[in-house]
From TrEMBL:
One of its GO terms (biological process) is regulation of DNA-templated transcription. The lineage of its organism: Bacteria, Bacillati, Actinomycetota, Actinomycetes, Propionibacteriales. Keywords: Kinase, Transferase. Residues 19-63 form the HTH iclR-type domain. This is Putative NBD/HSP70 family sugar kinase. Belongs to the ROK (NagC/XylR) family. One of its GO terms (molecular function) is kinase activity.
Length: 398
């Protein structure tokens, strides 16, 4: 009976759809392919490959190229995924800044825009500025709203599997809980909310230093610690989206707060310079000392700056050790605003880790810079497009 049901369900239209999804998946990750190449890659018959490719060409997902010149017999048909069939947005809605990437369907960035959010007082103001950045990116590339197929949106708050923001913490309430709904209603494309550290993890796994690493933690470590966790290539969310949240650091000896590397360095510098007997080049700087200035001073041998960075490295090692003990990742990537400078901390962090855990992870710094979350947001949007491609309507620009 079960076999009969399966057979009845496997109607020609359903099989055609399954085959179309299979072919589209291969083409979206490859360059130009011949019919023969698609047969070998999918195991489908020649007749099926050509029939389904014709369907995908008609839908706009695939283009057929000039067959070229064959030395013997009929030239092979040549197919290519239409990466400009539509576009996706990757949006990082941070506490201080929003960054927007507009990308084609291979994830190639075609426009970038941003807005400062430092002076924002309400979630509604934040949403308005994010929308302005989106409009700027679309305008710069000459892309219409109708050509956007999906937008990935990263926020510095837990987001559950259904895309709902958890607003139990005062910091998390900075973000509009209905941000995704507002953007979807305004633009008529799916706005897919996700935690920023989770998106950073997707971005690192896709385009960063963690390619081919499936057991991974990404630690956003600038102003406030937050982590995204990947186990066997799958993001971890938890029951309410709280997996990887780091409020527990308040309970960890030697850490005590969720303050990130940049914030901790600034506080340590202010404390050190309050002692008039300490000699340091940092005293020559006007105004409050920044984390970047401390890294620079340490680079030229300033003893006070070097001491600050040693303390920060030991504290950060405790944070990474908790992730290593609880989740046993192969690699922990430091990301966020301090990533580029934080490379100097890695040797001391790794030296400290072996004292905390018998399975210390490797530590690296992100190569994606300030785009780490928005790159992951692009990947999040592309995942949606790939899963729903045959149900999406492609609309030309103009």
């Amino acid at each position: 009976m079960a076999t009969d049901s399966i057979t009845a369900a496997a109607t020609p239209p359903l099989l055609r759809r399954v085959n179309a999804a299979k072919l589209l998946g291969v083409l979206s990750r490859a360059g130009v392919m011949t019919g023969t190449g698609l047969i070998e890659a999918t195991g489908l018959t020649r007749a099926t490959v050509h029939a389904v490719c014709n369907d995908l060409i008609e839908m706009g997902w695939v283009v057929e190229l000039d067959p070229g010149h064959a030395t013997v017999g009929r030239p092979s048909r040549r197919f290519e995924f239409n990466s400009r069939a539509g576009y996706v947005l990757g949006v990082d809605v941070g506490a201080a800044r929003s960054t927007v990437l507009l990308a084609d369907l291979r994830g190639v960035t075609v426009a970038k825009a941003g807005r400062s959010l430092a002076a924002v007082k309400t979630p509604a103001e934040r949403t308005e500025l994010v929308d302005q950045a989106i409009e700027e990116a679309l305008g710069a590339a000459g892309v219409t709203h109708a050509q956007v197929l999906a937008a990935g949106i990263g926020v510095a708050a837990p987001v559950d599997r259904a895309g709902h923001i958890l607003a139990d913490d005062e910091f998390w309430r900075l973000f509009d809980p209905a941000l995704g709904t507002h953007l979807t209603t305004l633009h008529h494309w799916p706005a897919l909310l996700e935690n920023d550290a989770n998106l950073a993890t997707l971005g690192e796994h896709w385009r960063g230093v963690a390619q081919n690493v499936d057991d991974l933690a990404v630690l956003l470590a600038g102003e406030r610690f937050g982590s995204g966790l990947m186990d066997s290539g799958r993001l971890l969310h938890g029951s309410r989206g709280g997996a990887g949240e780091m409020l527990y650091l308040k309970l960890v000896e030697g850490v005590g707060t969720t303050h990130g590397i940049a914030r901790t360095i600034r506080a340590a510098a202010a404390t050190a310079l309050a002692d008039p007997n300490l000699e340091s080049t940092l005293r020559e700087l006007a105004g409050p000392v920044s984390a970047e200035q401390v890294f620079a001073a340490a680079g030229v041998g300033d003893v006070v700056a070097l001491g600050i960075l040693r303390g920060v490295a030991r504290r950060t090692a405790r944070v990474i050790a908790t992730l290593g003990i609880l989740f046993n990742p192969e690699l922990v990537v430091l990301g966020g605003g301090v990533a580029e400078a934080a490379g100097v901390l890695v040797p001391e962090i790794e030296a400290e880790l072996s004292g905390f855990t018998t399975t210390p992870p490797r530590v690296a710094v992100s190569s994606l810079g300030d785009a780490i979350v928005s790159v992951g947001a692009v990947r999040h949007a592309l995942n949606y497009v790939e899963a729903h491609a045959l149900d999406l309507e492609l609309r030309p620009g103009g």
